[in-house]
Amino acid sequence: MISLNGSSFLSNSLSGISTLSHSRRKASPGVVMVAQGSSNNRRGGERKVGAVLENTLVNEIKDKDGSSSILEMDSKSTVGGGVQDVYGEDRATEDQLVTPWTTSVASGYSLLRDPHHNKGLAFSEKERDAHYLRGLLPPTVVTQDLQVKKMMHNIRQYQVPLQRYMAMMDLQNMNERLFYKVLINNVEELLPVVYTPTVGEACQKYGSIFRRPQGLYISLREKGKILEVLKNWPEKNIQVIVVTDGERILGLGDLGCQGMGIPVGKLALYAALGGIRPSASLPVTIDVGTNNEKLLKDEFYIGLRQKRATGQEYAELLDEFMSAVKQNYGEKVLIQFEDFANHNAFELLAKYRKTHLVFNDDIQGTASVVLAGIVAALKLVGGTLAEHTFLFLGAGEAGTGIAELIALEMSKQTKAPLEETRKKIWLVDSKGLIVSSRKESLQHFKQPWAHDHEPIKNLLDAVKSIKPTVLIGSSGVGKTFTKEVVEAMASFNEKPVILALSNPTSQSECTAEEAYNWSKGRAIFASGSPFDPVEYKDKVFVSGQANNAYIFPGFGLGLIISGAIRVHDDMLLAASEALAAEVTQENFDKGLIFPPFSNIRKISAQIAARVAAKAYELGLATRLPQPENLVQYAESCMYSPDYRSYR
Known about the structure:
By secondary structure, this protein is an alpha/beta fold. Helix 6 packs across helix 11 (261-274).
């Protein structure tokens, strides 16, 4: 007999599927009810647990016949690569008394429709018998590796990137573990499919391709009820939220509610690249309307058909959301702001960074990855950070965020005041070079970059006057690094560093081919979206991609494994240093200033370890004691998409 708090259950009620099968014979194969017992400590209700899993990292209870029954889980153990198993993905049961005490085991047709547990043709003969799958599947049994091979074969048949995106999203909604296995094993090929540049087109057409919801939609209609809306989400132990209001999607502008493709894509990368459990992540779109007239007139648009709310109405909705998140998920849930317009992005980050664990990928993530690329590039061009001069085209979230982090790192290296290191960095916006004479009319986030200089109206003249060693584009406007601009950079730099960061590809300031040809093969080039290798005078140049996916997955993992309660700028610097250290001489020889994505999980573990170490150093970590080897600990905490064996 199994006793729980003095209450006896039916003999061998949890001793394995054989016992469950007897109980299920009288019930529908779809949902199986077993074991009814004690009325003590009533908490009521029913808990769905999914299929019972075989796993070595559990405390097993042996039955009289020697078979193993999964009853308890050590809360400190790591199961299947997750950060503790607090999500119920691998638990057979929990210490939860209910009356009637019931456990529901997914089986039959419903199991094949459950993306969290479905394995398709990979269900074994034993599993097909135990879970009423006979006849519901063809007789062949295949491995997960063969499924990956088949999926990639099918995806490669599509010539249109959006079709590949839709095929991947369909797979995610059908078989979650296979989706992540495919993505992890083919990350360099599929990253442009599940994220930029293809995700931009997906957001533009999201209303037309929408099939099933993949996150939470919180609109003005939910004002006053946001906490209730959060509780509608089926997963209760959320650790990462990516939220957007859709006002500035990549370089595509206001896409309103259709910006949901961004949080969905980002969180897919959190799981695939950073090892955050899919069940611990939550995509959110805040719908306050859109100013995009084309969308408002589109019969397939899925959002509120009204102009954007602003001012107090907007602020109150965001404040209710932030409060509800903290109330529902606790102090340590990471909230990542994504693709908010400049005027809101800076204000939200400044307002909540002292009270919540918040991170703006457009401001901080972009800055961290670009700083890493610049630090790596110094090994090719020589000199220290302080010996170089930087010129930005674009003074929004990305531009000012990158500039500030460069200045911080420069200040850290030279011990010079931040006000002094900022003078090595110049920004050009839509009205020309940002100079002191414009200071009164500038937005607050641009004012620190207003230096003494005569006004200059265009980028080419700014390049000729400032003579930067590093040119960075974050304008969101394509073709702005013209032939004249690149040639000017090459005229006074032996190896000009040119970073065209705007996304998607159509908005890139220049292409890799243009940068290499116009600089006569001397440029050190990286971009926000990927470009094919370029051949110039019998030499093949492989350009790097300054993709935020290098940073944010590992950064988030570092915050989670340390139990950090706030994000500090020193953590961003630590992440940059960790990424720059991963660039090898072999990479440099190819002209790369970023490591290949094929090693991204190991890179993410290194970044996570550095970020976690900084959190402990700053006293912002709550997961104590600190692990002795943070790299090994980070790797052990990563989610694994490999199939589990079901009993």
